[in-house]
Amino acid sequence: MPPPRTGRGLLWLGLVLSSVCVALGSETQANSTTDALNVLLIIVDDLRPSLGCYGDKLVRSPNIDQLASHSLLFQNAFAQQAVCAPSRVSFLTGRRPDTTRLYDFNSYWRVHAGNFSTIPQYFKENGYVTMSVGKVFHPGISSNHTDDSPYSWSFPPYHPSSEKYENTKTCRGPDGELHANLLCPVDVLDVPEGTLPDKQSTEQAIRLLEKMKTSASPFFLAVGYHKPHIPFRYPKEFQKLYPLENITLAPDPEVPDGLPPVAYNPWMDIRQREDVQALNISVPYGPIPVDFQRKIRQSYFASVSYLDTQVGRLLSALDDLQLANSTIIAFTSDHGRQSMDLVELVSLFPTLAGLAGLQVPPRCPVPSFHVELCREGKNLLKHFRFRDLEEDPYLPGNPRELIAYSQYPRPSDIPQWNSDKPSLKDIKIMGYSIRTIDYRYTVWVGFNPDEFLANFSDIHAGELYFVDSDPLQDHNMYNDSQGGDLFQLLMP
Ligand SMILES: *[C@@H]1O[C@H](CO)[C@@H](O)[C@H](O)[C@H]1NC(C)=O
Ligand SMILES: *[C@@H]1O[C@H](CO)[C@@H](O)[C@H](O)[C@H]1NC(C)=O
Ligand SMILES: *[C@@H]1O[C@H](CO)[C@@H](O)[C@H](O)[C@H]1NC(C)=O
Ligand SMILES: *[C@@H]1O[C@H](CO)[C@@H](O)[C@H](O)[C@H]1NC(C)=O
Ligand SMILES: *[C@@H]1O[C@H](CO)[C@@H](O)[C@H](O)[C@H]1NC(C)=O
Ligand SMILES: *[C@@H]1O[C@H](CO)[C@@H](O)[C@H](O)[C@H]1NC(C)=O
C-alpha cells in the first residue's frame, strides 16, 4: 500500500474546512409500498464544484451537467472533515467525526467508537443487494481492510487491478523517463495493464448493472472513482480540452494576511511528487511558480473531464438497461471546495433511506456510541417536494436548520510535516467550523486525543469570514468580533 493520501483539492491553500457538491436525482416518485427503488451512489474523490452545473465556464462536464439538470443540486454541501477516510466513514455511517472518532486513517469505528450501521448495511438489511466498486470506503484499517465486509456488502467489494500503479512511476517526463509525478497525462495503451482504475471500475459497475437487470431484489450499487484526486493520471487526450493559454490562475493566490498559521495546509502530499520536488518550493508557504500553477489547474480540469466521461458511460448503461426510471442516483464528492442550499454529508444516510421509502433511522441521542442505528444528519426529503427551485424550500424558522458543521485536526500551531493529516496521537488542536448562509466561523481549540475531548476555553486561533463581502475568505474578521461569544451561542 502506498501511504494513505488525504485528498485535498490542490487549488486552495490555507482554507481547511470545505464543502463538496452533491446532486441527488430520482426520476420516479418513490412508492415504497409497490416498487422498491434501486440506488446508485457515485462517490468522487476530491472533486470541487469545477463543473458546468456549478457555473464553471471553463470545465467540460457534459455528463454530470446532464445528470444535474434533472436532479436536486445542492449549492452548499459540506463534508464533515476534508480528508478521505474520516469523511467517508462519517457520511457512510451518518455520524460526525467526533462520534466515529476517526480523524486519521488508523482505526475501525466498529471496535474503536461504536458498532454503527452504514448506509449500505441498512439497505442490505432491508432486502437490497449491496455492491461496492472502487474507492467507496477508504481502503485500509479504517474499513478493517475489507471495505467493511461482510456487514455493508452482499459480495466482496471490487477493486480495479490497475489501482496499484496510481502512485508508481508511470508518468513520462520531458526527459523521456518514467516518474511518479503529480502531473501525469498518459497514453493508456502505454501504461501497465493498458487501462486505468476508473475505466475498470466503470466496466465492472456496468457488468453488475447487467446482472441486476434480472434480479428479483432491488440493488444498492456504490461506485467510487479515484479522479480527480492526485496524482493527475488521466488519458492525455483530455489535456487538449484545456490549452494552457486558456487556463486562468486562482483569483487569490497569496496567503491571506489575517490567516492564523494553524489554519494553513502546507500540502505536504503534493510536495512528495517527483515533478514538484524538482521545483524546490519553500516549506510551508511556497509560492508555486506561476507556470506550474497553470499546469496543475490544467491537469485538474482534464481529470474532471476524464471522470465525467466515466460517469457518462455508467449513466448510459443505466439508461440502456432501462433501469434509470427505477433508480435513485446520488452523486457526491468526499470533499473539494465550496462554490443557497446548506447541507451536510451526514444527511446522505437518512435522505437516501427516505427517498427509497425505507424507515428513516431515528435521531441519535447524545452520546450515541451505544446505538447502532441512528442519524446525526437530517432527512432532506422535504426538499424533493419542491422540484421547482423557484419555490424556496428553506422556510424561515430555527436558524440552526441552516448550519453546517465541519472539523479539522492539527498537530501544532504552525504548519509542519504532518499538518495535513496528523495521526490521532499527534492531534493537539481541533478546528471546529460553522458555516451559515452569512458566514464561516472557526475556532481552533486544544484537543486531548486520549479522551477525545476538545477544550473550548483553550482557544488557539479563530477565523470569521462573511460570505457576501468576502466569498473567497481572504479577510479574517475574528479579531474584530466578539468571536468566542458567537461560538458558544451556536454550538449544538
Ligand atoms: C403507491 O402505490 C399505491 C398502489 O398503487 C397507491 O395507492 C399509492 O397512492 C401510491 N403512493 C404514492 C406516494 O405514490
Ligand atoms: C455489530 O453489528 C453487526 C451488524 O449488525 C452485528 O452482526 C454484530 O454482531 C455487531 N457486533 C457487536 C459486537 O455488537
Ligand atoms: C476485522 O477483520 C478481522 C480479520 O479479517 C476479523 O477477524 C475481525 O472480526 C474484523 N472485525 C470486525 C469488527 O468484524
Ligand atoms: C481558448 O480561448 C480562446 C479565446 O477566448 C477561445 O476562442 C477558444 O475556444 C478556447 N479554447 C478552448 C479549448 O476552450
Ligand atoms: C532549494 O531552495 C533553498 C532555499 O529555499 C536553497 O537553499 C537550496 O539550495 C535549493 N536547492 C536546490 C537543489 O536548488
Ligand atoms: C421503466 O421503463 C421500462 C421501459 O421503458 C418499463 O418496462 C418499466 O416498467 C419502467 N419501470 C418503472 C418502475 O416505471
Textual characterization of the structure:
The protein is α/β, with parallel strands linked by helices. It folds into 2 domains: 11-392, 3-Layer(aba) Sandwich (Alkaline Phosphatase, subunit A), CATH 3.40.720; 400-490, no CATH class. It contains 11 helices and 15 strands. The strands form 4 sheets. The protein has a 7-stranded mixed beta sheet, with helices on both faces. A hairpin with a 5-residue loop joins strand 5 and strand 6. It is globular, with a radius of gyration of 22 Å. Mean pLDDT is 88; it is low at 1-21, 26-34 and 386-397.
List the topology elements.
Blueprint: E1 19-26, E2 38-44, H1 62-69, E3 72-78, H2 84-93, H3 97-100, H4 109-112, H5 119-125, E4 129-134, E5 171-172, E6 178-179, E7 183-186, H6 197-212, E8 219-225, E9 232-235, H7 268-271, H8 274-277, H9 290-320, E10 327-333, E11 342-344, H10 348-355, E12 404-410, E13 429-435, E14 439-448, E15 453-466, H11 483-490
Parallel strand pairs: 2-8, 2-10, 3-11, 4-8, 7-9
Antiparallel strand pairs: 1-3, 1-10, 5-6, 12-13, 13-14, 14-15
- Name of the top-level CATH class of the largest domain: Alpha Beta
* Named CATH architecture of the largest domain: 3-Layer(aba) Sandwich
Structural class: alpha/beta
Helix content: 10-25%
Series of secondary-structure elements, N-terminal to C-terminal = EEHEHHHHEEEEHEEHHHEEHEEEEH
- In CATH, the topology of the largest domain is named Alkaline Phosphatase, subunit A
- Give the distinct bound molecules: 2-acetamido-2-deoxy-beta-D-glucopyranose
Distance between the termini: 39 Å
The radius of gyration computed from the alpha-carbon positions, rounded to a whole number of angstroms, is 22 Å
